Amino acid sequence: MALDRFNPLLRTNDLVQDLKWDRDLRARFEADEAQVLADYPLSDEERTAIRERDFRRLHELGLHPYLLSQLARLIHGTGEKAGTSQAATELIRSLLGDQYESYMAERGE
């Protein structure tokens, strides 16, 4: 999947980024996905594609390929059920060094 279809103005890009980083929003999404989708200025096509788990359509609409994979992880879960992986956690831990624990505390994790 190349970036040939990427549309930086597609609001689903914002939604996925927010879901990825906002623990409370993820909990709300799991509890009441329809309400979270209604709260975002998404097109009807975007909402339908998300509800139907139509990742191909989201790609065609312009969702960034990286965020497409993140949305799949957020919806279908990973070991941590947080849209991340052990590899990503270790990367962040390495990059932040001594600041890792305070960073995670700020995120509430």
Automatic annotation (TrEMBL):
<dbReference type="GO" id="GO:0051213">
    <property type="term" value="F:dioxygenase activity"/>
</dbReference>
<dbReference type="Pfam" id="PF07746">
    <property type="entry name" value="LigA"/>
</dbReference>
<protein>
    <submittedName>
        <fullName>Extradiol ring-cleavage dioxygenase</fullName>
    </submittedName>
</protein>
<dbReference type="InterPro" id="IPR011986">
    <property type="entry name" value="Xdiol_dOase_LigA"/>
</dbReference>
<feature type="domain" description="Extradiol ring-cleavage dioxygenase LigAB LigA subunit">
    <location>
        <begin position="13"/>
        <end position="84"/>
    </location>
</feature>
<dbReference type="InterPro" id="IPR036622">
    <property type="entry name" value="LigA_sf"/>
</dbReference>
<keyword id="KW-0223">Dioxygenase</keyword>
<keyword id="KW-0560">Oxidoreductase</keyword>
